[in-house]
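task queued by scheduler; priority normal; single chain, no ligands, no partner chains; default sampling; output format set to structure tokens
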Amino acid sequence: MRLFLCCTLLIGSLFAFPLRASAEGTGIDRYPEAMQAIAEGQYDVARRLLLEIVGTTPAHAGAWLDLAILYCGLGDAAETESLLSEIERRFMPPPSILEIIGHIRAQGCRGHIPTSRSSFTLGLGYDSNANQGASESHFDISLGQDRLRLEILPQYMKRGDRFYSISAAHTLPIGNEGTLAFVQAHLKQFGQMRDYDTLSAQAGLERGLRWHDWQLMGSVLAGSFVLGGSPYLHQARVQFRAIPPLDLPAGWYLGVTGMGTWTHYPSMSAFDSQVYELRGFVRRQTRSGEWQLSLGPGRDRASGSRPGDNRAGFSVILEGRRHLGNRLLLNWELDYQSWRASSPYSPGLIPERQHQRTTRARAGLRYLLDEQNAFVGEVIATDNRDRIAPFAYRSNVLFLGWQRNL
């Protein structure tokens, strides 16, 4: 399996048996690229890079082991055995590495990749603002030259409720060139506020490739969202990522990502939109984790007569993950988005131009029970401020669950 392959490669790298010469020469510069190619399913690219590394830096023991595991995953038993024998002859590996080598030989090379991966997550939680109710109980409207203060009805104020959640995901590599097909579904059911139950599903394709040493990734997806048992929106998205071959320290990356999102609301077509975003990012990868900072502008074009018309904005996202020991994984995200409307929301009634500023903080923990099971937990805090009072809200979400990987 691809999951087994990536985990085994990480184990081989972390034990780091004699790598005295691995810090010299050009091979070490391309090693992170090989690991990234494996993570993205680009196995032919990874094989080429690892062959280049062992050719230019023959004392890079980790690359030899990774290459043997990769050949085994591709079903080439003869080449795998040749590489394992060479590792034993060249490096006199310690017991921990000999155990990995013995495991590879014992399980055989039956072509683990490409193969599909599935996961299921079950759990329960609490949302302090299940209906995204208003933070303030009053707002003003214009009646000619006068301003009238109105009270927001109780059903549109903040209301909390517990919920149950189930999600499933399936990923299928297509060939050895880095193309992935995926499908995801998520059901969220509240204990009392059933009008806010949600069901979402999406499917798409993702492809990674290399062009003149550029690392490129593109994806397309389409999905639908059901709210309270009725279709709420349909969405399609195209996304790309590009990382140029810059001379940076190992583990550092600079790149750009962009996306276009088309949204259709079946019962509110006036709110249909086309959103285009472009962000630059810096990423840092280490053996224990990674983080990424990205920022850039966005443009939200109204497809119809949407109140407020077009919107312009920008976003800043800081996200990362870190291994806390062998079983615990921390992932986190902090993002800020700002959108300004180009026209008054409702001339003569609500003359303000909408200015939405959303801050969202998320932290998740995953505790590995065994190779297939894990406990998961997540907290999310959202502060959505808006110049138009009824659209401003705050919420806090807590979720605890169990995840099964197949």
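post-processing summary
- The longest strand covers residues 161-174.
- The first helix runs from residue 2 to 15.
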